[in-house]
C-alpha cells in the first residue's frame, strides 16, 4: 500500500468536506471536554475524601442548661461528668483507637464561632452559654467512630456524639451526582460525535464514488479503499481531542489552581500533573471512537 497515495486521498477528502470536518472537530472537542471534566471531578472527589476523611474528627458534645436531647434534661454537664468522659477516652479500652483528643470549653467554642462567622448577623445572637463544651477526637482509623458512640453515648452529661464524616458524605454525594451528570452528558455527546463521524465518512465516500469505482476496477482491495476514509475520521477526531486536552489543562491551571486553590487554601485540589494524565486518555478515546465509527460507516457503504 503506497503511503503517499493514501495520504493524498486523505487530504483530498478533508478539503472536500471541510465544513463536516469542522463539525466533527467541534463535537469531539465538546464531548471529550465533558469526559475530561468528569474524570478530573472523580479524581478530585477521591483526593478530597483522602484529605478530609483523614482529618475528620468525632465531636463528643456535653450537655448545656438548654439541652433537651439525650439524657440532658436542661442540665449542664458537671465537672465530674466531664472528667468521667475524659477518663473513658484515656482508658485502655478506647486509647488504642484514639490518635489525639482535646477539650473545648464554652468560651473557646464561642471564640471559634465568632471567628468563623465574623461579619454575619448570627454571630451577634450567640452567647457562650448556648454553645456546648466538647471533646474533639481524632481517631487512628476514622471509620471506627461507632466505637466512641457505643462507649460514650450512654454516659451522663453527654448530649450527642457526631462524626464529621457524616457531613462530608452529603457533600461527596452531591459531587458524585455532578460527576455522573457530566458522564451522562459526555456519553450523549460521544454518541453524537460517532454518528457525525460516520455521516461525514459516508458523504466523503459518496462524493468520491467515481474514484472508488475506478479503484475497484483496477483491483484495489477493500482495505486500500477504506484506509483513507478511516484516517480522515481519526485526523478530525484527534484535532478535537487535542482541543479538549488543552481545555482540560486550562481549566485546571487557571480555574482550579489559579482560583479555587487560592480561595480555599485548606482544601487539596487536582493539579496540572493530574490534568496531563487525562490528556492521553482523551487522545486515545477520540482516535478509537473515530476509527471504529469510520470503519463501520465505510464498510457498510462499500457493501451497498
Automatic annotation (TrEMBL):
Residues 57-161 form the FtsX extracellular domain. Keywords: Cell cycle, Cell division, Cell membrane, Membrane, Transmembrane, Transmembrane helix. The chain crosses the membrane at residues 21-41, 180-203, 224-255, 275-298. Pfam families: FtsX (PF02687), FtsX_ECD (PF18075). It is a multi-pass membrane protein. The keyword Aminoacyl-tRNA synthetase does not apply. This is Cell division protein FtsX. It comes from Microcella humidisoli.
Amino acid at each position: 500500500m503506497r503511503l503517499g497515495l493514501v495520504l493524498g486521498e486523505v487530504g483530498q477528502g478533508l478539503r472536500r468536506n471541510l465544513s463536516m470536518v469542522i463539525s466533527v472537530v467541534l463535537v469531539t472537542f465538546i464531548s471529550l471536554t465533558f469526559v475530561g471534566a468528569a474524570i478530573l471531578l472523580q479524581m478530585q472527589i477521591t483526593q478530597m475524601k483522602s484529605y478530609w476523611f483523614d482529618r475528620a474528627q468525632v465531636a463528643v458534645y456535653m450537655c448545656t442548661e438548654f439541652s433537651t436531647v439525650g439524657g440532658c434534661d436542661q442540665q449542664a454537664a458537671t465537672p465530674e461528668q466531664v472528667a468521667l468522659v475524659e477518663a473513658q477516652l484515656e482508658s485502655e479500652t478506647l486509647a488504642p483507637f484514639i490518635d489525639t483528643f482535646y477539650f473545648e470549653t464554652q468560651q473557646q467554642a464561642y471564640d471559634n464561632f465568632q471567628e468563623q462567622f465574623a461579619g454575619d448577623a448570627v454571630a451577634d445572637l450567640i452567647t457562650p452559654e448556648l454553645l456546648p463544651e466538647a471533646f474533639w477526637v481524632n481517631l487512628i482509623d476514622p471509620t471506627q467512630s461507632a466505637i466512641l458512640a457505643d462507649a460514650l453515648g450512654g454516659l451522663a452529661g453527654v448530649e450527642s456524639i457526631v462524626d464529621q464524616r457524616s457531613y462530608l458524605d452529603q457533600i461527596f454525594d452531591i459531587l458524585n451526582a455532578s460527576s455522573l451528570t457530566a458522564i451522562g452528558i459526555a456519553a450523549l455527546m460521544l454518541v453524537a460525535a460517532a454518528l457525525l463521524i460516520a455521516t461525514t465518512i459516508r458523504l466523503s465516500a459518496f462524493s468520491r464514488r467515481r474514484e472508488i469505482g475506478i479503484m475497484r476496477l483496477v483491483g484495489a482491495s477493500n482495505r486500500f479503499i477504506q484506509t483513507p476514509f478511516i484516517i480522515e475520521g481519526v485526523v478530525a477526531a484527534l484535532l478535537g481531542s487535542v482541543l479538549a486536552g488543552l481545555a482540560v489543562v486550562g481549566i485546571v491551571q487557571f480555574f482550579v489552581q489559579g482560583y479555587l486553590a487560592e480561595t480555599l487554601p485548606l482544601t487539596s485540589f487536582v493539579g496540572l500533573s493530574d490534568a496531563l494524565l487525562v490528556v492521553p486518555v482523551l487522545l486515545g478515546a477520540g482516535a478509537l471512537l473515530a476509527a471504529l465509527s469510520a470503519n463501520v460507516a465505510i464498510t457498510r457503504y462499500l457493501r451497498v
